[in-house]
Design goal:
Glutathione_S-Trfase_N, about 220 residues, four-stranded mixed sheet, 4 strands, 12 helices, glutathione transferase activity, Glutathione S-transferase, Glutathione S-transferase Yfyf (Class Pi), Chain A, domain 2, Glutaredoxin
Amino acid sequence: MAADDNKDLVLLDFWVSPFGQRCRIALAEKGIPYEYSEQELLGTKSDLLLRSNPVHKKIPVLLHAGRPVCESLVILNYLDEAFPSAARSLLPSDPYARARARFWAAYSDKVYELGTKLWKLRGEEERAQARDELVQVLRNLDGELGDKEFFGGGEFAFVDVAVVTFMPWLPSYERYGGFTVEETAPRLAAWARRCGERESVAKSLHSPEKVDEFITMLKKFYGIE
């Protein structure tokens, strides 16, 4: 099978997952057709998911002709390498610029990690620490963005795909943490609005209200209420 072959391309995913949404946005941006397979994460996981990702047992997983590729940023890298003739590349051609993009994309995972602590932790001291760390992460992302239209410059690309999927979660994090993104990272807030106008983003993300409902459900599921 040639690498640049999208036959039997299946994405194992979960509707509200920001990590799965990264893959959906990337596939849309690159113009690659695929089959979507919604997975159960809070109940019994499918045999397909367990076989495809036996180490972490989680989504997203991209099946390419039956061969699994796991972890969202690994999938994004794979899409650029396996489909060189797709509509566009997400990573820059310069090796140093690619390295920076990969660094900031991986760093952005801290937004979700620390935001989860805000609604999951019970202790006020621990939540305050998570809040302060999250605010610093947002400020660091704001600084990296600077006055550019997108993280890579004038084109929506790898880091933008990685970061934008956390934006619908931020209103909930603001409420649990007692801060505002507009004050903490104003350039990032404006960037998020620009990204939201892209078709690939608008079709892949859910509203902050839907995300907040999901977080409320998770709190009940874990007995946090």
